[in-house]
Amino acid sequence: MSEYGTLQDRVQCKQLLNKVMAPEQTIEFFKNGMNLGWSGFTPAGYPKVVPIALADHVEKNNLQGKLKFNLFIGASVGAETEDRWATLDMIDRRWPYQTGKNIAAGINAGRIRMGDKHLSLFAQDLGYGFYTKDSESGKLDLAIIEVSAIKEDGSIVPTSSCGVIPEILMICDRIILEVNTGQPSFEGIHDLLTPLTPPNRQIFGITHAGERIGSTSIPCDPSKVIAVVESKLRDQGRAFAEQDDTSEAIANHIIDFFTTEVKAGRLPKNLLPIQSGVGSIANAVIGGLAKGPFKNLTVYTEVLQDTMLDLFDSGKLDAASSCSLSLSASPGFPRFFENMDKYFDKITLRPLSISNAPEPIRRLGCIAMNTPVEIDIFAHANSTLVGGTRMINGLGGSGDFLRNGFLKMMHTPSSRPSKTDPTGISCVVPHCSHIDHTEHDLDCVITEQGLADLRGLAPKERARRIIEKCAHPDYKAQLTEYLNIAEKDCLARKVGHEPQLWDRAFKMHLNLEKNGTMKLKNWDVKIDLCED
Amino acid sequence: MSEYGTLQDRVQCKQLLNKVMAPEQTIEFFKNGMNLGWSGFTPAGYPKVVPIALADHVEKNNLQGKLKFNLFIGASVGAETEDRWATLDMIDRRWPYQTGKNIAAGINAGRIRMGDKHLSLFAQDLGYGFYTKDSESGKLDLAIIEVSAIKEDGSIVPTSSCGVIPEILMICDRIILEVNTGQPSFEGIHDLLTPLTPPNRQIFGITHAGERIGSTSIPCDPSKVIAVVESKLRDQGRAFAEQDDTSEAIANHIIDFFTTEVKAGRLPKNLLPIQSGVGSIANAVIGGLAKGPFKNLTVYTEVLQDTMLDLFDSGKLDAASSCSLSLSASPGFPRFFENMDKYFDKITLRPLSISNAPEPIRRLGCIAMNTPVEIDIFAHANSTLVGGTRMINGLGGSGDFLRNGFLKMMHTPSSRPSKTDPTGISCVVPHCSHIDHTEHDLDCVITEQGLADLRGLAPKERARRIIEKCAHPDYKAQLTEYLNIAEKDCLARKVGHEPQLWDRAFKMHLNLEKNGTMKLKNWDVKIDLCED
């Protein structure tokens, strides 16, 4: 018996005790080519023992490539599940976000078909049946959902994330429930609502970060549940991203900016609800707020990382709303579980379709902060594809928050090392090699060099401001020279609203490929279109 | 005396009769460098006699370049105002959308600083003071608003559009009102609400296209009104865009698609609220709906054009919500005014911050349809800059609707003529020269060739589908060859999630510049980075 209660305690819908089975017994439910919906969001609350049992089965019986699935999951899940599945060639399609070396390798070598989408749109499109429209049933074939408990009426209580559980339940008639008894129940932390399809979609009437509009469990028809499996495995959350001088400098620029905005009366004294992405810069920003001058803060975001516990402990954070509790396996989750009383009532976990919905994000006026791969001088941002072609993780919710926030900010180091040059990659380029967020979506760009406030600036003014405030000193002159040449050429041809030269806009990227650095000797290019 | 009532009838706040003056008398209020807010949206409901009097003054006194202003207006206004101002060098900055030959010329030659923004964000950012933060007062210096009437309490009744009137009133203390007695009053058609700044922003609880959440006039402090001017000039609306075979073919593909979606149960029988942009394709789509099988339609959009009256007359349209009534000067407006009884109660005009707000657009589940400049094989779209550098009109509300719709569709002819080749410009290209809407935002692309349903497709699948269904036959083989070369190269390097080749992604654009057509002899390129 677990210290957190037995399976019998957690399965209060007694008819479902008949469906209890070992993970291995679920293998027969899986057929090659199935569309699967999993719970889980940015490694938290995902099913574990069933996916692992199936991977073991494939490995033991040499079924690599013979049992392949299409995976629809709120965001990434633990490497012991999706990344291992990728290694065993068990994934055909994967939507809309993933993490792991092997799955990324499969995607970029063309073995796995991945698509990314704004997470809020992924959730609703899944519920509308857009991803399963070409299958015979038009539905997901099988759902695997990790739960804390099954209530008497069959409704389910999620664990550390809500993901797209409501949408999965809308379009799936065969459900496997993994009841996690290896950790305390999360019952009471969630605010759950199944969004109806238009024209009947409800008002999401959240007017402050902690407000609740739903219930603590979500309806689930017990007759659709084909298996109940016990799990004692915990989330293999992201390791804590270390802060460094660069991220501290960025955080300081951001705190200074907030201070100025409060003074000018454009932000309330307790700011507005914070959305902060993942990684070292996000950690530094949250760390900066824990030490900073602002009180009674709120957070409305999609992931809560370890540093958010520090912000709670500082006494400066009143409430946090998120889609998932993405703490590290250690020390994050143990720290949370040992102090649940302190954090529980201040946290609300919501489904992706509500945590990332434009409606509450605009109404609350979130301050959106995310890290791109690169940004260009006109303030377009690449969040997904290195070199414009290689997928890292996916778009995530960056667009949901950047398009709808009160302030829309992106932060990045000004440069990154290439193999041969410590500043060989400039994160400020003439033209992004892939564009996920447009110039119409960003207010501020921040690097360790400074903060460029772009509000109210026309494109050429934006370009000079970004180069001046944000570019690494090794690239300032080079980028200015490009802008000058492009501006002169385009204005002379009377096509100069936003100057670019298509024979050399990507010269920095091509030079990196060829010579291992974005540092150019000059902006000359001889291009022969070979038309003759 | 006008047949539509006297100025005295319209100015019911009697203390403001003291402020009545001739347009020429307002000239003294204008100083060089001022930030001005105007009513108006996509030539409707904009001030006329005051801007024209000021233009006459500049012309008569040779003040060109000596009286320049920053113009903040919901969208474009009549050519007799902003385009004439551009000719007289009276515009320094212009946000966020414009139409007119001279103003576009000024922007692309670098004389006028323009910035475009998603219209819903422009509205709120204007209200937040983001555009006026660097001026001494932090406010707009002067507002010019066309009204139908001034109520007893000083509140104002707009005319044919609502634009950003609420936000202008929030941040402007000196207001000129143009009372238009040259047409019937629009009192009763508007649904007006001033959105409060977060954290106090209201719920916009619209649950069907015709639902009203505000009032028919908007509060205005009479002590801020410095002049009341009578105008009898009417909107110089857009001429009716003729339909042609191409736009009819596109409309037919769209109607067929709707029929399939209704059959599959993914759309209700009366569809969902339609958003349709401007131009000949939009006209053809609305025309197609007037003749088509669907009844009890609704419209939730930002502009209503002449064909919308046909859709009403067909008996198939129950309600239309818009930011403006953008009818043609003739026959549109006379037809509307002569049949006001028939149309008035079915139309709701709302401020931009509500007509274009993500909140109602997602809740209602709009079907968003807009025309881009070009689209690329991975479904990024360029809506604003020809050749990636020359501004046409601006982004408008395309992103508000495409990001938030139930179905997100873009329609374009598959090719356009260049100077020397009737199909010299392919509207499907390997990589857009400017990206306003990303691959994460589009569900369907339609040309006269066909409709590409991209839902659930990974990038390389999308590319093949778009080429197959949408590209002009003159370009199908050429685009496929590019995709094949790029795919082979990128997959070999294991960076092939979304293949591109940066030495030739813009070869079609460069060839157009050099040789007058996007048709290539081959995909070879010799590029010398001139690094040695």
Automatic annotation (TrEMBL), chains A, B:
One of the Pfam families matching this protein, by short name: AcetylCoA_hyd_C
Classification via Gene3D superfamilies: 4-hydroxybutyrate coenzyme like domains, Acetyl-CoA hydrolase/transferase C-terminal domain, Glutaconate Coenzyme A-transferase
SUPFAM superfamilies given in the database record: NagB/RpiA/CoA transferase-like
Keyword Nucleotide-binding tagged: no
Compartment(s) of residence: Cytoplasm
InterPro entries named in the record: AcetylCoA_hyd_C (IPR026888), AcetylCoA_hyd_C_sf (IPR038460), ActCoA_hydro (IPR046433), ActCoA_hydro_N (IPR003702), NagB/RpiA_transferase-like (IPR037171)
Domain of life: Bacteria
Ranges where the Acetyl-CoA hydrolase/transferase N-terminal domain occurs: 14-230
E.C. numbers: 3.1.2.1
Residue span, Acetyl-CoA hydrolase/transferase C-terminal domain: 332-482
Keywords: Cytoplasm, Hydrolase
GO biological process terms held by the UniProt record: acetate metabolic process
Organism: Geomonas terrae
Gene Ontology CC terms, in alphabetical order: cytoplasm
Protein name (Swiss-Prot/TrEMBL): Acetyl-CoA hydrolase
Record field: catalytic activity: acetyl-CoA + H2O = acetate + CoA + H(+)
Family: Belongs to the acetyl-CoA hydrolase/transferase family.
GO function terms (MF aspect): acetate CoA-transferase activity; acetyl-CoA hydrolase activity
